[in-house]
Amino acid sequence: MNSRLAALAAAALLASCIEGAPSSVVNGVAVVTQSTPNTNWSSFSTFSVDPTVAVTDATGSTVTNTTVDGSQLVPTIATNMTQRGYTQVTWTGNPTTTNADLQIKMQATLGSQSVYYPGYCGWYPYYGCVPGWTYAGTYNFGTLILTMGNKAGVGSGGTLPLVWTGAGYGVLSQYYTPGVPSTGANVNYGKIQAAINQMFAISPYIQK
Amino acid sequence: MRTSIVRIVIAAVLLAGTARAAEESWMSYRPHQTVFVVNWEISGPIGGFSNYISDTSLRGISFEARSFVRDQLSLGLSFSWNRFDQTFDNVVVPVNTTSITNGTASGPVFRYADGFGIRGLAHYYLGHSQMLQPYLGVGIGGAWNYAYQQVADLTSSQSNFNFIVSPEVGAMIWLAHGASNAAVNIAFRYTYTTATAGREHDLQWLSGIVGLAWGY
Questions:
Q1: How many CB atoms lie within 10 A of CB A185?
Q2: Could you tell me if A111 lies within 8 Å of chain B, comparing CB atoms?
Q3: The pTM is what?
Q4: What are phi and psi of A138, to 5 degrees?
Q5: B182 CB contacts (<8 Å, ≥6 apart)?
Q6: CA distance B137 to B169
Q7: Chain B positions in Cβ-Cβ contact with residue A19 (cut-off 8 Å)
Q8: Has residue B26 got a pLDDT over 70?
Q9: Contacts of A170 in chain B (CB under 8 A)
Q10: Rounded Cα gap, residues B13 and B16, in angstroms
Q11: Which residue range forms the structural domain that includes residue B180?
Q12: Contact at 8 Å (CB) between A180 and A14?
């Protein structure tokens, strides 16, 4: 009997010693950024942000593509860019007619899937270059992706060479619910804005 | 009378022979010459390991069996477990993989490293005090190590079996001698392994050790 109690006590002690990641990590903001090598950031003067968020939802049995209004996120991006010395220009809805050196798009992915940057042609030779689409990798649930293209290299069909990407992992779990487009009520803007700020914080080379 | 004396002499010789045979084989169990030890280990990573986890670990335990093959020399076996873990509010690391080049990643990170070691032990005891037995020791063997990293729900891990060597200095403070012997064991140990955790290799740590020893 005593040996059983001792075994139970030992098991309880061992279990108490083994713990998982705290919620601050599990629900934390994880960010990855990537820049095109040899980009001359001081050569750019203006930027513009497309306020539309392209949402790719792969949580269901079929992948759906929709768009939601992301205008509430634009000021966060604009503030960071302005602090780096760039001047904001109005987005016209078309990259070829928007008179900005740097053009920023937002994309949201729900579910785990391969992601393609719309409207851009990447610099990565091993990705290939499908007109209008560039493979970006596989992202998991609730990722916000910012892409920044260089207007000077605009190609046919309005594709821009990519100079920077930022991905905020796991920040959109409350941003978009299937069937319930973003209305603000189900959006954790604080978490999204923190991710955007962190993307710029770890990209100090973005500087006029 | 003569018969009794002969019996006593024969018995004494046989018993002496048995004791000597027992002394000659260190694998044999000898109640008054085998000591079992349970240790609590407080450990701090050093070297590259401290780049992975810098917090002091209070989660370490080891079990030892020491068998005296000479008055001042014991050989034995040890099983040990050490866990190191730490949560970082924000870690910024460069990323250069096949899918992401020229990149940077950041976020809150949880890391831990487990080490399960099995070592052969040798200890040399200094002096002949009945109360205090200082010793020098070394353990050599193998260790299974598991290291884990998590950011959000993204995880990665490394699992490997490694060489481990651990010299130590310490002392047995004997509390009781007799049919049962009991002592407090204190030691200071350096552990070197060829284990890998994250981007760090050859994990090393220093341990302060306190334990209970008994022999009977």
A1: 8
A2: no
A3: 0.69
A4: -105, 125
A5: B174, B175, B176, B212, B213, B214
A6: 6
A7: 85
A8: no
A9: 152-153
A10: 5
A11: 31-215
A12: no
The amino acid that residue B211 corresponds to is G
Q: What does the H/E/C string look like for chain A? A: CHHHHHHHHHHHHHHHHCCCCCHHHHCCCEEEEEECCCCCHHHCCEEEEEEEEEEEECCCCCCEEEEEECCCCHHHHHHHHHHCCCEECCCCCCCCCCCCCEEEEEEEEECCEEEEEECEECCCHHHCCECCEEEEEEECCCEEEEEEEEHHHCCHHHCEEEEEEEEEECCCCCCCECCECCCCCCCCHHHHHHHHHHHHHCCCCCCC
Q: How many domains does chain B have?
A: 2
* pLDDT value of residue A118: 43
B47 and B109 within one domain: yes
B119 pLDDT exceeds 60?
yes
Tokens 């098991």 locate to A11
In this structure, the number of other CB atoms found within 10 A of the CB of residue A2 comes to 6
Facing A31 at nearest CB: one of B87, B99, B107: B107
Task: Give yes or no for residue A130 having a pLDDT over 70.
Answer: no
**C-beta of residue B132 within 8 angstroms of C-beta of residue B162:** no
Q: What is the mean pLDDT of residues B111-118?
A: 94
Nearest to A30 among B59, B89, B152 (CB): B152
- Tokens for B82, please give them: 């050490």
From the list B83, B103, B86, the residue with the least C-alpha distance to B41 is: B83
Nearest chain A residue to B57 by CA distance is A17
The CB density around residue A163, as the number of other CB atoms within 10 Å, is 24
A200 CA to centre of own chain: 12
What's the confidence (pLDDT) of residue A23?
73
Residues B93 and B47 in one domain: yes
Average pLDDT over residues B68-85: 94
Rounded to whole angstroms, the Cα distance separating B18 from B153 reads 63
Report ipTM (2 d.p.).
0.70
Tokens of B170: 């310490």
Task: Catalogue all structural domains in chain A, each as residue range(s) with its CATH number.
Answer: 29-92+99-201 (3.30.160)
- Note whether B8 and B74 are same-domain residues: no
